[in-house]
Amino acid sequence: MRGSFAWVLGITLLTAGLIGCKPKAQPTPSQPKPLVKADPQAEAEAAIRELARQVHIAFLSGDPAKLAPLALWGLPEETLHAGMKQVYIVDARISAARIKAVPATNRTVVHTNTLEKLELFLAEPDRQFEPMKPGLTEGVQEFKKQNTTLLIQAAAGDAPDWTQSTAPSIVVRPGINMATPLPEGAADVLFSCAGRSYQLKLNNCVKLPGHGWVLGADIELIDLAAQAEAEKAWTEDFPAAQLRATEQKKRLFVDFTGSDWCPPCIALHDKVLTQPEFLQHAKEHFVLVKVDFPRNKPQADPQREANQILARAYRVQSYPTVLVLEANGTEVQRLNGYNGGSPADFIKSLTPPKPTTPTPKKQ
């Protein structure tokens, strides 16, 4: 699970002179090696990369038992509980210290009540943590269900022959968060099989105290060719979309998103907005518009400015925010966030489309 390190030993071979008798040369005193400071970010990146490699192997096998030791849900309960208790203790200490840094005269009732709860927890962490255990176990079991389902699907009879997969290319996403009691990161495994390209997404990897880096949440398999085809249904040109909506007598479906950094945005995109069921519904009723606010991938200045104008005009303050608009821009519906529902659930949450007025028959 952790990165492997190779140590290379240099061996000096000494040969004795064959002519004459000379004293052996004294070895030159070795110079002390300079101390090399550890780089936590680099170490974390190496550990996440190794974790991703092993998760990919488990995925190709289709065997959930091989994934279990690499995920929070597969760890022994005592390991999970001990690690998470330590996370809560450290987090409580940090939170309490922040409140205490606020002058007493400036503290609110919320400050006071929160500090009392934190100090109670820190005074008896074992006792206070005990009732938290069932909820923690239940939470990780939800991820077990998702992970297991994905691996079973990977081993189904109609799935590709994963033994023919190419060697993976592993990309650790930027922005590993080490400034937290439970450090987090994410990675993508890119590989090909049977002439198609795939992306295995590890959206949440965590470093559990006393154990190391493990898979913290769900994993996703993306067929990149199918995803590229789905992306063709979307436009980033809002004025042109309005014109199309007017001509086709449809509404606008506008997704305000942070496509490369916002976990709920990414989940909504992957699990709903690019799925065939949603795209078929949208084809009949909407013109699809993406208003993106990326942090890592490049974006042209005019597009960035146009997106900012739209966000201000519609008072969008969080991502993802989905707006259903009339072609003239009038807001019909607003959906904030994403709770993990299916495409069918999401479609049901949308305002029903306007009924089509039937064309009167000629007499």
Describe the model.
This protein is an alpha+beta fold and about 375 residues long. The protein has 2 domains: about 45-225, no CATH class; about 235-350, Glutaredoxin (3-Layer(aba) Sandwich), CATH 3.40.30. Helix content is about 40%, strand content about 15%. The chain is built from 12 helices and 10 strands. β3 and β4 (about 210-215) form a beta hairpin. α3 crosses α4 (about 110-125). It is globular and about 70 Å long.
Largest sheet: 5 strands, antiparallel
Return Rg in Å. Answer: 28 Å
Tally of alpha and pi helices:
12
- Strand % is 15-25%
How much is the average pLDDT? 87
List the helices and strands and how they pair.
Elements: H1 40-61, H2 64-67, H3 77-100, H4 109-123, H5 125-129, H6 133-154, E1 169-172, E2 184-193, E3 196-208, E4 212-215, E5 219-223, H7 224-231, E6 234-235, H8 238-248, E7 251-257, H9 263-273, H10 276-285, E8 286-292, H11 301-313, E9 321-325, E10 331-336, H12 343-349
Parallel strand pairs: 6-8, 7-8
Antiparallel strand pairs: 1-2, 2-3, 3-4, 3-5, 7-9, 9-10
Helix pairs in contact: 3-4
